[in-house]
Structures are given as structure tokens and as C-alpha cells.
Amino acid sequence: MSELSVAVFRPAVLRLAGHPWFRRLATQSRPGRSLARRFVAGETLEEAMAVAGELDRARTLAMLDHLGENVTSPALAVEARDAYLAALAEVRAAPTLDCAISVKLTQLGLDASLQECLTNLEPVLEMASADGTQVMIDMESHPYVDSTLEVLARVREHHPNIGVCLQAYLRRTERDIFDLPPGVRVRLVKGAYLEPPDVVYQRMEDVDAAYARLFTTLLARGHKIDAATHDPRLIEGVRRRVDAVEEGWGRVEFQMLYGVRRDLQAKLAGQGYPLRVYIPYGTEWYPYLTRRLAERPANLSFFLSNIVRI
Ligand code: FDA
User: Fold this and answer.
1) Which of 77, 92, 173, 298 has the CB geometry, 3.0–4.6 Å to 109, for a possible disulfide?
2) What is the value of pTM for the model shown?
3) Per-residue pLDDT tens for 125-161?
4) Cβ contacts of residue 261 below 8 Å, gap of 6+?
5) Can you spell out the DSSP letters for 212-266?
């Protein structure tokens, strides 16, 4: 995306997507649902596991994301916890599959309280730890960064298999990385939320430069890193940096989203690079879809032109 697109297009689409009429249009129309099908594995765990199996056959690792965020009641947070326990049970039943899970803390009750979130997260971590399954915490919008890092710090001691996502567009991330638990796994992304201009870099080239700097620092500080991007220039930079470090590929993997740059996914996996694909599934796909729409003007125009044709 051009600089203008980052500063203007993405916030405009994310604002538009916040309107109830747009939500209705996207969730209740055929074009909306068919676009969602491109980015979401399905509404059920079974469909997500089928995708994980297909990826495995293509020498690609998997990570399940049960969709949902900002739950509005304790019962919904418990439902999300149970959905993750069910996902872990499926992963346990497929021991040859390398399949991580990724959670959103507002799905587990963070808006209500840190304690409610920890109470729901703990059994998920217990079960994942017992099987050695990796659990990653997604990073949501900037008001959640402090509490997300606080949860990470509290659970990390007993659950070394937990990691966190950090966003390169946030100016604060360059400080946050120095306070991380030593060696913790970090998924590095550009960032996908609607944010006020003072907390994020406005120009794409600044986000990309921050990504490269953060990656280099995380690598030098001994972290395991998931280079989660579809940007060929960043991927090339990661490749060069990791090649220069002894055993570097034991600590770094590429990650991409289901339905995005399948060509690049096939190429990297074919070349033998470690690649994991993030597999979102579930019925609460609308907020996830809006972020994918906002990343690429072509997605929005595909959606709108199909709506016009109905
Ligand atoms: P960029 O947006 O520059 O895209 C590079 C190229 O990739 C584009 O030119 C296009 O070809 C392709 N592309 C990217 N997005 C596309 C789309 N939607 N449709 C079609 N093509 C597309 N963010 C966050 O804030 N918190 C999180 O927890 C996560 N978690 C996460 C996990 C994983 C595994 C990935 C890959 C990404 C995330 N993200 C995320 C999303 C991330 O912040 C970012 O919005 C997207 O990855 C898009 O940015 P790129 O780095 O791919 O670059």
C-alpha cells in the first residue's frame, strides 16, 4: 500500500466497517460471506483442522485462531475458553501435526478484568503446557498493550510455551521489547488496528523500517521470533539476517495468514523455510474480515463491486 493508503485508506475502511449497516451488508450478503471464505477456514473447528491437515501435507505448520474479541459477558469468555480447550483436544488427538493456538485476551474477559482473563487463560495454558503446544497472544489495539504484557509477565514463569505478538507500527514497541521476559517468543507484525496518529507511525516506510529494526534487536537479544508478514522486502531482510546467525533458523519462522499470498506461502515452504499459517475459524468473523479489507484496496473494491452487481 502507498503511504497515502496507510494514512487515509485503512482508517477510513476501519471506520466505515464500524457502522452497523456496513456490518449487515458484509455479514448478510453473498459477496460478504464469500470474501470471508477466502480469509476464514470455516465456522467450525473441524473445518479448521482440515485446513491444518492440508497445510501439513504442504510442509507448512499451523496455528488455530478461534475468532472472537471484546466479549460482552463472562459467559462468552468462558465459551471462548472452552473453544480453545476443544481445539487443544483436537491438536492432542493429532500428535504428528505441529499446530499452535493463538488467543485474544479480550475474548477471554480482559475488558471485564485482568483477573477474569487470567482465570480463563490458565486452564488453556495448563492443557497446552502438558502437551508442549505453543500458545501465542494476539496483540489488539493500543489501549490493551499494557494489560497484555502484564498477563504475559504473570503467566510466563509457569508456562514457558507462551509468546506474544508485537506491532511494528506502534511507536512504543521499540521500548517495550526491552521489558519482555528474556527469550520469550515474539510474533512480529506491522499492526492492523485503527489507531490515533500519535501512537503509530503514519508512513508505511517508517513502519517497515521499525519492523526491520525490531527484528534485528529481537534476534540479537535471543528471542524466538515469528516473522509474520507477507511483505517480500521484509521477508528478504529477515532471510539475510537469519542466515548470518549461527543456528538462526532454529529460532525464527515465517508466518502468514490463511488466504493471503498463497503463492508466497508455497514458495517459502517449497524452499524449506519454516512457515506457519494462522488459521482463523468460527462464527465471529466480521471484525477479522474488516481488518483484511482495510489492508488492501483490492479486497474492498472486490466486495463493493460484487455488492453493486447483486
Ligand atoms: P503489507 O500490508 O504491506 O502487505 C504486503 C503484501 O501482502 C501486500 O502487498 C499484499 O500482496 C499482501 N497482503 C497483505 N494483506 C493482504 C490482504 N488482507 N489481502 C490480500 N493480500 C494481502 N496484527 C495485529 O495487529 N495483531 C495481531 O495479533 C496480528 N497477528 C497476525 C498473525 C499473523 C500470522 C500475520 C501474518 C499477521 C498478523 N497481524 C496481526 C496482521 C498484521 O498486523 C498486518 O496487518 C498484516 O499481516 C498485513 O501486513 P503485511 O506485513 O503482510 O504487509
Assistant:
1) 77
2) 0.96
3) 999 999 999 999 999 999 999 999 999 999 999 999 9
4) 230
5) HHHHHHHHHTT--EEEE---HHHHHHHHHHHHTSTTGGGTEEEEEETTS-HHHHH
Calpha distance 134→103 (Å, rounded): 11
Q: What is the Cα 224 distance to its own chain's centre?
A: 16
Which listed CATH number (3.40.50.150, 3.40.50.1820, 3.20.20.70, 3.20.20.220) goes with 42-282? 3.20.20.220
Pairing relation of β-strands 185-189 and 162-167? parallel
Q: Return the SS3 of 41.
A: coil
> Which candidate in 65, 98, 138, 208 is catalytic?
138
Q: Provide the 10 A C-beta neighbour count for residue 70.
A: 15
Ranges of each domain in the chain: 1-40+285-310, 42-282
Convert the pLDDT of each residue in 284-305 to its tens digit.
Answer: 999 999 999 999 888 888 888 8
In this predicted structure, what is the pLDDT of residue 297? 86
Residue 191 confidence (pLDDT) above 80: yes
Question: What is the residue-averaged pLDDT of the chain?
Answer: 95
Site to substitute for ligand 1 among 66, 230, 233, most atoms within 8 A of C-beta: 230
| Nearest Cα residue to atom 43 of ligand 1 | 191
Give residue 9's pLDDT.
Answer: 86
Residue 6 is predicted with a pLDDT of: 64
- Percent residues over pLDDT 90 in the chain: 87
CB count within 10 Å of CB 5 equals: 16
Whether 295 lines ligand 1, by a CB cut-off of 6 Å, is yes
| Mean pLDDT, range 260-287, rounded to an integer | 97
Cα(100) to centroid(ligand 1), Å: 19
Provide the 8-state DSSP code for 187: E
- CA distance linking residue 25 with residue 231, whole number of Å: 30
